[in-house]
Recover the amino acids of this structure.
């Protein structure tokens, strides 16, 4: 081909410029690196306007549905205000559709009304990324090199946008990851904090538990109270530390009733075993006092209180054992002092009474004996002193009558004692007496069993007098068993309805009993089998019961011991005052 | 026949009376109880002693028989001076009369106490004639 030198030099310049532009375009991705799509598009449009001497360049970037499309417009040598970018893009789009060679009306005021070449430049293989639209008033646009530059620019832009998009996606992913890491870290921190708190809480709880355990142990130690549980069905027994100490049993030992039995005082073992068996059956709360005997022979007094809980299959006694040895010794000292005082008081009052009775009776008795002796001597004399004998015999009779009068006066004195007449619940009265004498009964190691009838009718009479009778019967029973060591000292007190609208109270012991021929004498005044007894208890008791229109009697048991019973009439409905008949107290003429 | 024995009896009685007054030792009974003062002297007389009864220690002390009394049967509890008061008073006055206490009390603890303080015996009413006689014999032997 023939080339004109002038033309050739222009062509070379043109090509050189084209190569420069290509190099610039190829360098663009390096400039874009790390930038976002708007930045990329701005530089792209600027580069295109500059390289291709364009009048206008615009870009519309496809974005996911729901987002605002990125639309950018650049106008070379812009003078005045530019219409909104999206309107320009839309107008250019219309022009391309209509293959218009004129500026769209929207831009005519800005760009003039000359012919224009508008060229679309899709981004991405199918234009899926968007479209760049360039426009120039040059008619020869685009020349071959310009078309090349445009295509390269579009490619470069596509690559840049793809990278940017990738980068943005990566950034987003990294961000999300970061956020997730942060969130997870925060969650972990929170969990960690919670765990820490929980640990601290647990530690504190543990410390508190240890502390309260220490408190409890110390309290048990100080108060000498140990606690225990006893599962009735399996005989599983659990002890607190203090209880091992009280029983002086090694902490590692397995606690069984057999083991406990080795520490119980031999004389109290039967009471203890009795109680265990009763607790198994009754399932009632327990209050018990008994003695322990340590291997070195030392004796301890313990008080046991336990209550039952749980259902039928899982019955369990929970209780406390207190070492009351010290208290017991105080109590014993106190009780001794009290009983000494009571004894002194009794001796004083009874002593005064018996002394005066004795004095009153002994004086005439003395006269009788002396006169009778004198009489015999006078009759035996030689010759017999009949006058003297007659005189002394007369005096003997007179003194006999005097003695009888003394007894009458004493009876009258007893009879004067006032009786009250009230409604008495024999069960309540019995319970009070039992409470009053429980420590004495326990001291005598008596196992008291109460069988008090429900719905027992009230009786009419003097509550205190009836209680004296009950107390007297209990004491007698307890005394009668004081020498019994080969069997449990069992004492049964029972109330029940008796025939003929009466109420009966029974006291049954397993004591020494009485011989059949002394049965008649039991209720006589001054008859006693005791070394320190006055022998008036049963006599007075019978008087009291008879004054209540009742009767008091004794029967020997089939086994050992005696049963004393009294039966008194129930209080009639609408009774007023006429319950007790004082005149029915036994009189001298009955006795004589 | 009739007169002689009667005379003899009278004579014998007179002798006994005389001997009683002169030879028989005097036993004094001090008791506020009248039946004792009635009955006891007769028994003591039957034993063969001379006897005087007084209703109170004061009466006895005021009588002329303190010196002659060879043995004192003395009640313990009396209104006014008691038996032990009299015992003390006699000691103070220098009369060492053996004393047999008699009491209607049942308190057996008084006996050793009284014996310790010099009493010959302490009898609890009612006592037998034999016990009294034995105590009297002991008292008069001591005397």
């Amino acid at each position: 081909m023939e080339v004109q030198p002038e033309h050739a030099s222009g062509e070379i310049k043109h090509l050189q410029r084209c190569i420069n532009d290509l190099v610039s375009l190829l360098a663009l991705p390096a400039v874009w690196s790390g930038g976002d799509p708007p930045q990329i598009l701005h530089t792209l449009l600027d580069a295109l306007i500059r390289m291709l001497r364009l009048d206008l360049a615009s870009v519309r970037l496809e974005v996911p549905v729901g987002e605002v499309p990125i639309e950018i417009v650049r106008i070379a040598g812009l003078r005045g205000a530019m219409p909104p970018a999206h309107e320009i893009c839309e107008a250019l789009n219309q022009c391309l559709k209509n293959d218009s060679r004129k500026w769209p009306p929207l831009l005519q005021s800005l760009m003039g009304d000359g012919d224009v070449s508008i060229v679309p430049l899709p981004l991405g293989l199918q234009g899926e990324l968007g479209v760049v639209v360039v426009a120039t008033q040059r008619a020869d646009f685009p020349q071959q090199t310009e078309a090349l530059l445009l295509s390269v620019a579009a490619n470069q832009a596509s690559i840049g946008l793809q990278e940017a998009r990738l980068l943005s996606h990566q950034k987003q992913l990294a961000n999300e990851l970061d956020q997730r890491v942060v969130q997870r870290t925060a969650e972990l921190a929170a969990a960690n904090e919670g765990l820490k708190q929980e640990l601290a809480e647990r530690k504190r709880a543990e410390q508190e538990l240890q502390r309260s355990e220490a408190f409890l142990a110390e309290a048990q130690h100080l108060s000498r109270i140990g606690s225990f549980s006893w599962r009735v069905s399996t005989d599983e027994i659990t002890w607190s530390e203090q209880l091992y100490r009280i029983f002086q049993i090694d902490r590692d030992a397995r606690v069984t009733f057999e083991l406990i039995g080795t520490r119980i005082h031999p004389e109290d073992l039967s009471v203890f075993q009795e109680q265990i068996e009763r607790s198994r059956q009754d399932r009632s709360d327990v209050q018990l006092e008994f003695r322990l005997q340590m291997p070195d022979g030392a004796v301890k007094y313990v008080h046991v209180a336990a209550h039952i809980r749980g259902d039928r299959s899982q019955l369990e006694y929970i209780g406390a054992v207190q070492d009351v040895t010290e208290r017991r010794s105080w109590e014993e000292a106190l009780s001794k002092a009290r009983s000494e005082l009571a004894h002194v008081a009794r001796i004083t009052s009874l002593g005064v009474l018996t002394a005066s009775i004795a004095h009153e009776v002994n004086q005439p008795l003395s006269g009788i004996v002396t006169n009778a002796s004198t009489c015999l001597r006078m009759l035996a004399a030689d010759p017999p002193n009949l006058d003297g004998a007659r005189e002394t015999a007369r005096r003997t009779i007179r003194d006999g009558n005097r003695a009888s009068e003394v007894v009458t006066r004493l009876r009258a004195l007893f009879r004067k004692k006032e009786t009250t007449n009230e409604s008495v619940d024999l069960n309540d009265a019995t319970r009070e007496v039992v409470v009053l004498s429980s420590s004495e009964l326990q001291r005598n190691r008596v196992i008291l069993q109460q069988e008090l009838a429900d719905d027992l009718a009230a009786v009419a009479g003097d509550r205190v007098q009836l209680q004296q009778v009950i107390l007297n019967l209990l004491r007698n029973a307890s005394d009668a068993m004081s020498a019994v060591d080969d069997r449990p000292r069992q004492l049964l007190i029972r109330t029940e309805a008796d025939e003929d609208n009466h109420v009966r109270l029974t006291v049954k012991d397993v004591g020494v009993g009485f011989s059949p021929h002394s049965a008649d004498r039991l209720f006589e005044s001054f008859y006693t089998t005791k070394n320190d007894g006055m022998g008036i208890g049963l006599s007075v008791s019978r008087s009291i019961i008879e004054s209540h229109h009742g009767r008091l009697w004794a029967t020997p048991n089939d086994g050992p011991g005696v049963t004393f019973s009294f039966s008194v009439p129930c209080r009639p409905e609408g009774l007023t005052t006429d319950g007790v008949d004082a005149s029915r107290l036994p009189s001298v003429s009955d006795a004589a | 026949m009739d007169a002689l024995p009667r005379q003899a009896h009278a004579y014998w009685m007179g002798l006994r009376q005389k001997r009683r007054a002169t030879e028989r030792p005097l036993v004094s009974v001090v008791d506020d109880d009248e039946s004792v003062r009635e009955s006891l002297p007769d028994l003591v007389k039957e034993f063969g002693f001379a006897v005087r009864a007084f209703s109170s220690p004061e009466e006895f002390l005021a009588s002329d028989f303190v010196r002659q009394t060879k043995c004192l049967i003395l009640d313990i509890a009396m209104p006014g001076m008691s038996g032990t008061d009299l015992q003390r008073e006699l000691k103070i006055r220098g009369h060492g009369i053996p004393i047999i206490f008699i009491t209607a009390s049942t308190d057996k603890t008084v006996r050793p106490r009284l014996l310790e303080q010099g009493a010959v015996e302490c009898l609890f009413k009612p006592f037998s004639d034999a016990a009294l006689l034995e105590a009297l014999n002991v008292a008069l032997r001591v005397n």
Chain B touches chain A through 21 residues (CB under 8 Å). Chain B has one domain: 25-142. Residues 137 and 143 of chain B are 10 Å apart (CA to CA).
